[in-house]
Amino acid sequence: MGIESNLGIVTTCLDKIVNWARKNSLWPMTFGLACCALEMMVTVSARHDIARFGAEVYRGSPRQADLLIVPGTLTKKMLPMVLRLYEQMPEPKWVIAYGNCACTGGVFRTYSVVQGIDLYIPVDVYMAGCPPKPESLLTAIIKLREKIDKESLKDRR
Ligand code: SF4
């Protein structure tokens, strides 16, 4: 067996361990923009229990968060602040566009509203709805966990 295949085995094992840890300890940022944020807040209640997925520890500082949930209407006036928060998050970090407004601008086809957060930052999971139910955020978290599971350390920046 050559060095390259040995390295491949080590990387694969390491990926599995790291991805397992990352997907089970997502730390979302405490951050809301509009009505969708109310649905997001409900996910920490006992009924929805986001703690099942290890994502219940909403962090007050972007430096301690690895998941940015963009919940609601993003106005162009708010955009610089959101970009600043995103840039302050350390790698690896992930983004969920939560609700029609965050995905595409939603019903606000107007000059003052950003027509999709993915015009400015990379989005990992899109969740449509106006507003999406709290269960939809849990679905988005499950999708994100599946995505993290397929990541490899060698592909990371
Ligand atoms: S998608 Fe609907 S519920 Fe969510 S922020 Fe936009 S208007 Fe409000």
TrEMBL record:
Which reaction is this enzyme known to catalyze?
A: a quinone + NADH + 5 H(+)(in) = a quinol + NAD(+) + 4 H(+)(out)
Cofactor dependency: [4Fe-4S] cluster
Subcellular localization is given as: Cell inner membrane; Cell membrane
Give the transmembrane ranges.
none
User: Bound how, and how many: what does the cofactor note say?
Assistant: Binds 1 [4Fe-4S] cluster.
Which amino acids does the record list as binding [4Fe-4S] cluster? 35-36, 101, 130
Q: What is its EC number?
A: 7.1.1.-
Lipid bilayer topology: Peripheral membrane protein
The NADH:ubiquinone oxidoreductase-like 20kDa subunit domain is annotated at: 35-144
Q: Which UniProt keywords apply?
A: 4Fe-4S, Cell membrane, Iron, Iron-sulfur, Membrane, Metal-binding, NAD, Quinone, Translocase, Transport, Ubiquinone
GO molecular function terms listed in the Swiss-Prot or TrEMBL record: 4 iron, 4 sulfur cluster binding; iron ion binding; NADH dehydrogenase (quinone) (non-electrogenic) activity; NADH dehydrogenase (ubiquinone) activity; quinone binding
Its BP terms in the Gene Ontology are: aerobic respiration; electron transport coupled proton transport
What Gene Ontology cellular-component terms does the record carry?
A: plasma membrane; respiratory chain complex I
Question: SUPFAM superfamilies of this UniProt entry?
Answer: HydA/Nqo6-like (SSF56770)
| Pfam families in UniProt | Oxidored_q6
Checking InterPro entries in the record gives: NADH_UbQ_OxRdtase-like_20kDa, NADH_UQ_OxRdtase_20Kd_su
What does the record give as the function of this protein? NDH-1 shuttles electrons from NADH, via FMN and iron-sulfur (Fe-S) centers, to quinones in the respiratory chain. The immediate electron acceptor for the enzyme in this species is believed to be ubiquinone. Couples the redox reaction to proton translocation (for every two electrons transferred, four hydrogen ions are translocated across the cytoplasmic membrane), and thus conserves the redox energy in a proton gradient.
Listed PANTHER family: NADH DEHYDROGENASE (PTHR11995), NADH DEHYDROGENASE [UBIQUINONE] IRON-SULFUR PROTEIN 7, MITOCHONDRIAL (PTHR11995:SF14)
What does the record note on quaternary structure? Answer: NDH-1 is composed of about 13 different subunits. Subunits NuoBCD, E, F, and G constitute the peripheral sector of the complex.
Say which family it is in.
Answer: In the central section; belongs to the complex I 30 kDa subunit family. In the C-terminal section; belongs to the complex I 49 kDa subunit family.
What this protein is called in its record is: NADH-quinone oxidoreductase subunit B
| Annotated gene | nuoB
